[in-house]
Amino acid sequence: MDLVKNGILLSKNSVIFIWATLKKFTFTQIKKIPKFKKQVEEETKKISDLFENEVIENTKSEKYVVELPSQGISRDELIKTVNRYLNLGKYNWKEGFISGAIYYYDEELIKLLTEVYGLASYTNPLHSDIFPGICKMEAEVVRLVVNLFHGDSNGCGTMTSGGTESIVMACKAYRDFGRNECGIKKGEIIVPRSAHPAFDKAASYFGIKIIHISLHPDTYTVNLKKMENAITKNTLLLVGSFPNFPYGTSDDIEAISALGLKYNIPVHVDCCLGGFIAAFMPQAGFPLPPFDFILPGVTSISADTHKYGYAPKGSSVILYSDKKYRHNQYYVCTEWPGGHYGSPTVSGSRSGGIIAACWATLMYFGMNGYITSTKEVMDTKIFIEEQLRSMKGIFIFGKPTTSVIAIGSDDFNIYRLSDALNSRGWNLNTLQFPIGIHICITHLHTKPGVASLFIEDLRQELIEILKTPNVELTGKMAMYGMSATLPDRTIVGDITRYFIDAMYYTPK
């Protein structure tokens, strides 16, 4: 639908944008009125207290240490204290009652990685002449993952501290490549609306303009026509997710690769979440469309070894099709009095222990181990998805590719279902725009009875909710529901900052 105003043709999307901007401006101005300003401050103070009180409740059994002890604490006492701290919290995560977060847990693997990390805990790949073995392990991790994603002999990359750093490093590399090789001074990256906020973080850090492209309302994948229309002479990078975090759906990487080739623009594929399932799915009996370096337009891939690679937290890889991109990721300083300085990633010093433990994990599982694990996770995901699709009152967003299933409802506020499952011990992720919840299936959910228990608990709570579908939200979920509707996102930003503040709570 188009509207004509004073001889100017306005598209429906333009009208929606103008209306949203007007609402935000109005809300911002009202917020400055002393009476309403005070009310906003009082409400945000309540939210801040809510977050802090939750931390206090979770840690009430322990005293806080805010000064160094006068005498060092014994080994046995330290181990006892650490074990107590690790058991704080209300979720039974070892039994699969959470979404994502912990992707594999096995006592034997923990013992192995603890020993490996301990052996290498003092090492630092920054000093490659002192610790060449650690550098060898990192190089081997990069090479074997390049091969998993069908890279050729030119393929390369580095390890990073996690998916966010992998994405941030890719954006830094393409900003500098665009500036150094293409003369682009004001670079832009084009990402799906569902792309991870690490791309927004990179844009904020490095002064890059980020353009978000809307999703198809049925498939929840990026609108390719709009992506192509957004391309300009300043475009540094096109991005696709395989899969994305919110919905578990995957963008058409083959088509994005074709756009990259057509306009001579690099293409990054974010495989941080499901890359280490997608890489093994075909061999496990689950065909996939091409999404990696087998496509000629794909120039980089981010993949987290600490998710379905089952390596320790703090490990990921960023891969490139050619060294010319990786060279622009590096930071090099040649004028320092201390000598020539160069580092591959944000960090200078890095943990050799994490590198060694990641390498050991890949060696421990091997190809057959990952194929077996992938089959177990995918079989469980298919079972849960089929059960959910058979239930009235809820729907699944799009077609999940790997392990994430997102749930919505046209009959009631879906946050109520999340809250109800939370009361039964389940921890799911909440989504917004539109509101939804998702469960990320991990190897923990493949344990006998876990998936069936989740389905039965969800079914029972759904039956109760549908008896009174119009009941309003209460508690924390009411806050989530409210924040999703606020036109002024600065207030939502403040709420997020209060949440982070609470993570650093200590008694006054």
Strand order of the largest sheet: 3-9-8-7-6-4-5
Structural category is alpha/beta
Q: Could you give the count of β-strands? A: 15
Average pLDDT over all residues: 92
Cofactor: pyridoxal 5'-phosphate
Protein name: sphinganine-1-phosphate aldolase
Subcellular location: Endoplasmic reticulum membrane
Family: Belongs to the group II decarboxylase family. Sphingosine-1-phosphate lyase subfamily.
Describe the structure.
The protein is of the alpha/beta class and 508 residues long. It is built from 17 helices and 15 strands. The chain has helices at 12-31, 34-58, 75-86, 107-120, 132-148, 163-182, 198-206, 224-229, 253-263, 275-278, 281-284, 323-329, 352-389, 415-423, 450-467, 475-483, 489-503; strands at 2-5, 8-11, 156-160, 188-192, 209-213, 235-241, 267-271, 298-303, 316-320, 331-333, 341-343, 395-396, 404-408, 429-431, 436-440. β6 (235-241), α9 and β7 (267-271) form a beta-alpha-beta unit. The chain is globular and about 65 Å long. The protein starts with a strand and ends in a 5-residue tail after the last helix. Mean pLDDT is 92; it is low at 1-10 and 12-17.
